Prior knowledge:
This protein is α+β, with helices and mostly antiparallel strands. The protein is about 60% helix and about 10% strand. Helix 7 (about 145-150) packs antiparallel against helix 8 (about 155-165).
Amino acid sequence: MDLHLLLLRLRYASPETAQLLHIFLLVAAVLAAHQLWVRSSPTRRELEQAALRGGLIGLALCLGLAVAACFWGYQGGAARARNLQIAGAAPLRVAYGAGGAPLIQVFTAPGCGPCAELEARLGPVIEAGYAVEYLPSPLSEEDWLPIVSALCAPDPHAAFEHLYRMAQPPQPGAVRRVCDDRARLNEAALKQLTGRLVYPTVVMPDGFVLLGAPSQATLLGYLHAVAPPRLRGAGPEIGI
């Protein structure tokens, strides 16, 4: 496996994993420094035999826990394939970018500040040769009707952009029942993917999931490692 890609996946696997890994490695570093300090003096080494033994046990335990945290948070091939299957089952989506380009899927919600920040970062990503599909889902029950109305409108892209830029939502009008059912399936897919509703949730082309709004450097760094762009030229597409 590409070591750079492995390190990227470990780094971005989840905030919880990163925090645990940092804690265990910090404690391990302190214990290792204590071992070196005690062993640097024959007198201290003689007087602190119990501390040396306990420190070695603690050091091994911390390193073992750090490895366990990596395995717990790391998204292996089977997990990434499952993520792609779940995200691909979300039926209501708005697509941007060239067909056949490496695809990024984003669960997003109206009124979500981090979602708006991420949308601004994804514009240059699309221009760089990637495709993005937004999978709308609600923050509250009040969001259902505007979402469904937007994606069932004659021009779904325009209505979607109007709604997600927190402008006046489109008028409800006549909502097709099939759109309403599909919108609720988007929420179910997100819950299955993450266990809870996290906005935004980003599914990368290889199925790797990023929670929250990753920086543009994170997005492009990971994308270039797993899926270099193949096509240029973006144009909107719609999938309903």
